[in-house]
């Protein structure tokens, strides 16, 4: 049996350093707007709301950073199919018997590829590839499992 590997991961356009720079510049811009209102008009609520915006923005960036390295890895080797899913700090691994796997391509827009093993359970893959590429991936998996 041929050894094959598929690595499916998020398309992150910013590096961690660029993300921090973007967050810092947005925070400075918000403070740059809020501080003059406090100094000129004594409008402390503007600063409070700017701080709340900064906190919400920081929470969004933390969430993004936690999931930036999410991925799915599918390895066909040594007589088994290993599906490894990494989501934030959680790693889930599923080892399936290739002879019993049925690959179900997505039927509707947005559906994932289902790998059914003996009718007992299904593992869904393809979260990080476009909808158009899921059918192609399903066909590749079918062909690799046949060999």
TrEMBL record:
Pfam family, one: DUF2244
Keyword field: Membrane, Transmembrane, Transmembrane helix
Segments crossing the lipid bilayer: 20-38, 44-64
Protein known as: Putative membrane protein
Species the sequence originates in: Paucimonas lemoignei (Pseudomonas lemoignei)
């Amino acid at each position: 049996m041929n050894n094959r590997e598929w690595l499916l991961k998020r398309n992150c356009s910013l590096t961690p350093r660029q993300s921090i720079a973007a967050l810092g510049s947005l925070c400075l811009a918000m403070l740059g707007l809020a501080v003059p209102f406090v100094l000129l008009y004594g409008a402390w609520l503007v600063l409070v709301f700017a701080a709340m915006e900064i906190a919400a923005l920081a929470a969004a960036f933390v969430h993004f950073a936690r999931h930036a390295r999410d991925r799915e890895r599918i390895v066909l080797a040594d007589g088994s199919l290993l599906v490894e899913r990494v989501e934030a700090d959680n790693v889930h691994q599923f080892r399936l018997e290739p002879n019993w796997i049925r690959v179900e391509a997505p039927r509707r827009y947005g559906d994932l590829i289902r790998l059914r093993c003996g009718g007992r359970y299904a593992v869904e893959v393809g979260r990080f590839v476009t909808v158009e590429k899921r059918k192609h991936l399903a066909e590749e998996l079918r062909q690799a499992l046949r060999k």
